[in-house]
Amino acid sequence: MPIKEIQHYAKLRAEGDPTLRERMEMLTAHREALNEQIRQLQEHMTKLDDKIDFYRQEIDRTSKNN
Fold first, then answer.
1. Taking the chain, what is the end-to-end CA distance rounded to the nearest angstrom?
2. Domains of the chain: total
């Protein structure tokens, strides 16, 4: 969550119960953004693992031929 949003959240929290819904919505939006980042990172990790596996196989294959 960007600093500006954290500051806004802190201001709302200081205002008390009337801002509960808005704070919950902010946190829910932040959670959705984090889930998307995690999804992207997991996808990158899978692609990286695939590339590492490819290189291991190629190294094994070429070392057996030499």
1. 53
2. 1
Residue-number span of the structural domain to which 55 is assigned: 3-64
| 16 φ, ψ (degrees, to nearest 5) | 90, -160
User: Which among 2, 61, 62, 59 has a CA at the least distance from the CA of 30?
Assistant: 2
Output the pTM of the full model.
0.76
User: What would you report as the CA-atom Rg of the chain, rounded to the nearest whole angstrom?
Assistant: 23
Quick check: 12 and 23 in contact, CB under 8 A? yes
1-30 pLDDT per residue, tens = 899 999 999 999 999 999 999 999 999 999
Residue 47 CA neighbour count, 13 Å, CB half: 6
Instruction: Report the SS3 class of residue 1.
Output: coil
